[in-house]
Write a structure and sequence with these properties.
The protein is α/β, with parallel strands linked by helices. The protein has helices at residues 2-27, 57-65, 79-88, 92-95, 112-118, 168-182, 232-236, 260-280, 284-319, 351-354, 381-388, 403-406, 477-493, 511-524, and strands at residues 30-36, 67-73, 122-127, 140-143, 154-157, 160-163, 189-194, 326-332, 355-361, 370-372, 376-377, 418-422, 434-438, 442-446, 456-459. The chain has 14 helices and 15 strands. Strands 1, 2, 3, 4, 5, 6, 7, 8, 9, 10 and 11 form an eleven-stranded mixed beta sheet that branches. It has a four-stranded antiparallel beta sheet with strand order 12-13-14-15, covered by helices on one side. The structure holds calcium ion (CA).
Length: 525
């Protein structure tokens, strides 16, 4: 009798211990990270762009049920570098991936998926990767080679090339959901669902051609920007809708890889409109306006499929009862220009490319319908996911912990300034290398090939469209001095090397030097 009661007590202890462990494990949240490529916040209806470009009900649902971040900034506004920052929680100069042109991700370095995997998470990534080396830290991966293509894309599944029929956004969604359905349901999981869309060349699913019923879109105030008031860099770029968009971008030539049946649908939309365009023989501003409208039809068309994908993921989480214990994140690798300053593309420290959309839902940890205006960043994701999962954060991670921010309790010492650094030059868009400091009101920018003292300063409160540098204006002397100090402090804190790296192809961006080179060349000739 005594023995039996001892045994019973011992079993009870074991039982309690096991169920406590189970409870702790059950608390480890799943992480569903949906990451699109070049998705401008202007193209998510929850962000309230005055042009009301399109409705994104599923993305808006995440904002309604969670937090919409209005000032999520990227450290280096292009595809590969942004992905390397997300994985490592580090800036480009430390994760070794500063540009798309010749960087290769060192897959042996520590990343948050690797640490989650070690902690018992099931991990998988689908879609856009763009880091040259193969993914590491994932139980399963299926990625697009390089930039990937929209129609019938080849993909690489665990090292093997596979042909996938259909539309890229649908394929990435289906493969992600299939993996989630087959997972071991006793363990937490990380699913990274990384879309190609809405990246160039902005090719919608065939079902979305004509989605806007030939709408004439409102124009941004700066569509015909003449770049006065700013320096050489802004005048010298190659990213205007007017001059740089190609006939291929504008769908004046057919997209490759369509099957004959798909091509019929594609032609039925584009061919008559292209014929009408050719007959109009547009020039000047009218031609820019036509290209702008074609661009928005195509770009927004790709976003429609992304929104549907988000809807499918939300539905799955609901049906599986996973919504409550899943951190659902929607973000893009950077922002994008939808005609502001006459541009498409990204790269600049200026608002439309620096800011990226970020929507997060984690019931019980986020308050539904919150709008947050703190300076947060894609560099914060790694640390945040690790802490949420109860995994130790490596000391050299540079981001912050978003968990108190998500809960509406932003710590008093949360960052008030942000360091930005762009490297890639001159191709593909001739944006000069630059770095700078961003606060809630100002941006101090150094285009470093222009000389050691060359800077630009923007006052977002007085000049929200960033049309005029006020650097050198005596009324900003104190502000400038403070920002210069803050910039130096951030560079030291983030361990930025003092000597700037050479630009990708070694070209000098300095117009004075360029002219001197021409004179030298003339002399030697
Ligand atoms: Ca991108």
């Amino acid at each position: 009798m005594r023995l039996a009661s001892i045994l019973f007590a011992a079993l009870a202890v074991v039982g309690v211990t096991a169920s406590a462990a189970d409870a702790a494990k059950a608390k480890q949240p799943n992480i569903v990270f949906i990451f699109s490529d070049d998705h401008a916040y202007q193209a998510i209806s929850a962000y309230g762009d005055p042009r009301k470009l399109l409705d994104t009900p599923n993305l808006d649902r995440i904002a309604k049920e969670g937090v919409r971040f209005d000032r999520c900034l990227v450290p280096n506004s292009i595809c590969g570098p942004s992905r390397a920052t997300v994985l490592t929680g580090k800036y480009s100069h430390l994760n070794g991936f500063p540009n798309n042109s010749n960087s290769r991700f060192d897959g042996t370095q520590t990343t948050f998926p690797k640490l989650l995997q070690k902690a018992g998470y099931q991990t998988a990534i689908f879609g856009k990767w763009h880091l040259a080396s193969d993914p590491t830290g994932f139980d399963h991966w299926q990625i697009l080679p390089g930039q990937g293509v929209y129609y019938n894309p080849p993909m690489i599944r665990m090292g093997e090339t596979v042909q996938e029929p259909g539309y890229v956004t649908d394929i990435i969604t289906e493969r992600s959901l299939a993996w989630m359905k087959k997972r071991d349901k006793t363990k937490p999981f990380l699913a990274m669902i990384q879309h190609k869309a809405p990246h160039r060349e902005w090719s919608p699913a065939l079902r979305h051609l004509g989605h806007d019923k030939d709408r004439v879109y409102p124009e941004p105030a700066t569509l015909f920007d003449d770049y006065e008031g700013r320096g050489f860099a802004v005048k010298d770029q190659h990213m205007t809708i007017e001059k740089i968009m190609t006939p291929f971008d504008n769908k004046l030539t057919a997209m490759p890889r369509l099957t004959p049946e798909q091509r019929k649908v594609w032609d039925a939309y584009y061919v008559p409109r292209n014929e009408k365009f050719t007959n109009m023989a547009l020039t000047g501003k009218d031609l820019v306006r036509w290209k702008y409208n074609r661009y928005l039809h195509d770009y927004l068309g790709t976003v429609k499929a992304v929104d549907e994908s988000v809807g499918a993921v939300l539905k799955y989480l609901d049906e599986e009862g996973l919504a409550d214990n899943t951190i659902l994140v929607y973000a893009s690798d950077q922002g994008f220009y939808l005609g502001e300053h006459g541009w498409f593309d990204k790269r600049w420290i200026f608002e439309e490319s620096l800011r990226t959309p970020l929507l997060v839902r984690w019931p019980g940890h986020t308050k539904a319908g919150t709008v947050n205006k703190d300076i947060v960043s894609t560099v914060d994701f790694a640390q945040t996911f690790l802490i949420a999962a109860g995994v130790a954060v490596p000391n050299d991670v540079q981001g912050g912990n978003l968990l108190p921010v998500l809960a509406g309790n932003t710590p008093a010492n949360w960052r008030k300034s942000f360091y930005y650094h762009y490297y890639e030059y001159p191709e593909p868009h001739r944006v000069q290398p630059h770095y700078g400091v961003v606060t809630d009101r100002y941006k101090l920018v150094r285009f470093y090939a222009m000389g050691p003292d060359y800077m630009e300063l923007y006052d977002l409160q007085k000049d929200p469209n960033e049309m005029k540098s006020v650097f050198g204006d005596p009324s900003y002397a104190k502000v400038t001095e403070d920002l210069q100090k803050e910039l130096a402090r951030l560079r030291q804190e983030l361990k930025v090397p003092e000597v700037e790296p050479p630009s990708v192809f070694g070209g000098s961006a300095n117009p004075a030097k360029k002219n001197q080179k021409k004179k030298d060349a003339a002399k030697t000739n």
